[in-house]
Design a protein that fits this description.
By secondary structure, the protein is mainly alpha-helical. The chain has 19 helices and no strands. Helix 3 packs antiparallel against helix 5. It is globular, with a radius of gyration of 26 Å.
């Protein structure tokens, strides 16, 4: 009887100890989660500024081209009651006389706009591969510094001649492609699986914010000081931030000198089963045969077709439909991108919220991709049937551009799910494949508008809708979010 009582007391004591240990472990895990959630946005904010700077330098020519060439402003036929400054009848303010003006045809301007995309197309895939080997800190930092220095040289290149200007833009595209393709490698080593949606969205949302600031402030700077100062300002800020990038960014938690121990252990533990420390060759044949990978490429391509159409033709469409002047056009054209920036930030929060409710990764990825792709396509294809209604047209354009970034925590980070240890290469490859749309959209769009001015816009929007629906359906059918067999660690068993 005494032995049974002692045994029962000992058993109860062990149960209490076990419960206390479990409570402590859960408390420590919860604390780690809180630490990580506190500091992760700071890392993503640096990547956000990186994308912001590249987007500003890329989009600067979009607004400065208006001041660089001989052109005549259209007088606005929009009623002043809509809230545009100074009304439609006020003459546009003249630009500074010291800023040089060039006699470039629309075809030449198109070549200048597209030249940077040829360079980016060539280096996005190598950028992802090199960042996986050398680290995103070096590859992306050097690319941003090079892009910034070349941006400072744009006014000089334009004065030296058209060929120098085009060559500078192509080389600048080579630098930017390395940076955009390479910076994705950060999330291979830093982003826990359940936080990739939020961190990736914060990072990529720097692009629409950069486009908004370039279009909005570029016109103001050009009007006040001359168009060269747009490039001097964006290039100078890029040089400063590139130096901060080298100081603040580290390739992985192990090399970071200021990271907290609990945060470091949490990140490494979540990535321990996904990222291998040993160097392995790329399984190129398996990647090329992977339908989930091709679904990412095709869906990204179709979505970028939508984005590039909005970025390239929104000012032209507004001018064509409503004959607004350049000042008002810049204001209206920049509005959709600030909405896109806000929605892009919220999209990552939405995806992580769904994951926290135990939704499967593949369901979340496909849901946000669907929301960011199909509704904007429907809004765009509806534009020709609005009978030139000003308010509804601007609303549809703003909503289409604003909702589109919901795909950022979907298809654009999906490569981190299917092949974490090769994700830097796959992200660069899929982004490079998608960037072909930046080259094709101006060519095909210009052809359609020149062939049939009356129905050119309708044909271009129908083509956009068809491409987006095809890419989305292919992704919904073949897209995956689990680690593929060819991307798993191979364990060698010895007898």
């Amino acid at each position: 009887m005494l032995r049974e009582n002692l045994y029962q007391k000992r058993k109860n004591k062990m149960a209490v100890i076990t419960e206390l240990n479990s409570t402590l472990e859960n408390s420590e895990f919860s604390q780690d989660m809180q630490v990580d959630k506190k500091h992760s946005p700071r890392k993503a904010f640096i990547a956000h500024l990186f994308n912001f700077m590249l987007a500003v330098q890329n989009a600067a020519l979009t607004i400065t081209m208006v001041a660089m060439v001989n052109s005549t402003d259209h007088q606005s036929k929009v009623n002043s009651s809509v809230g545009l400054p100074d009304g439609p009848d006020k003459a546009p303010v003249s630009l500074p006389a010291k800023a040089p003006v060039y006699d470039w045809s629309p075809q030449t301007q198109g070549i200048l706009f597209g030249s940077i995309n040829y360079g980016m197309l060539l280096t996005m895939v190598p950028g992802g591969y090199l960042a996986g080997r050398m680290g995103a800190k070096k590859v992306s930092g050097i690319s941003l510094l090079a892009s910034s220095l070349l941006t400072l040289g744009i006014p000089l290149a334009a004065n030296l001649g058209l060929s120098f200007f085009i060559a500078t833009r192509v080389v600048k595209g080579l630098a930017q492609g390395l940076g955009l393709g390479g910076h994705f490698a950060l999330w291979q080593r830093w982003a826990p699986p359940h936080e990739r949606s939020r961190l990736g969205s914060i990072s990529l949302s720097g692009i629409p914010l950069g486009m908004f600031m370039a279009i909005l402030l570029g016109g103001i700077i050009s009007q006040a000081f001359g168009w060269p100062f747009v490039f001097y300002t964006s290039g100078g800020l890029g040089c400063v931030f590139s130096l901060l990038w080298f100081v603040l960014v580290y390739d992985d938690p192990d090399s970071h000198p200021w990271i907290g121990i609990s945060e470091k252990e949490y990140i490494l533990s979540t990535l321990d089963q996904q990222v291998s420390s040993e160097e392995r060759s790329l399984p190129i044949k398996s990647i090329l045969r992977s339908l989930p990978f091709w679904s990412i490429c095709l869906c990204s391509f179709s979505h970028q077709w939508l984005i590039n159409t909005l970025a390239t033709y929104t000012p032209t469409y507004i001018s064509h439909m409503f004959k607004v002047n350049i000042r008002d056009n810049g204001l209206l054209s920049s509005l959709p991108f600030i909405v896109a920036w806000i929605v892009g930030l919220l999209g990552g929060q939405l995806a992580d919220f769904l994951l926290s409710k135990n939704f499967r990764f593949v369901i979340v990825r496909k849901t946000v991709t669907f929301l960011g792709q199909l509704p904007p396509s429907i809004l765009i294809v509806s534009l020709p049937y609005l009978n030139s209604n000003y308010i509804i047209t601007i609303t549809f354009l703003t909503l289409a551009c604003g909702v589109a970034p919901l795909s950022q925590p979907g298809v654009y980070v999906n490569a981190l799910d299917i092949a974490p240890r090769y994700s830097s290469f796959l992200l660069g490859a899929s982004r490079g494949f998608a960037h072909m749309s930046a080259v094709l959209v101006p060519i095909i769009g210009g052809f359609l508008l020149n062939q049939d001015p009356e129905f050119g816009w309708r044909n271009m929007f129908f083509l956009l809708f068809a491409i987006n629906v095809f890419g989305l359906i292919f992704y919904l059918i073949f897209g995956k979010a689990d680690v593929q067999d060819w991307a798993k660690e191979r364990k060698i068993t010895r007898l």
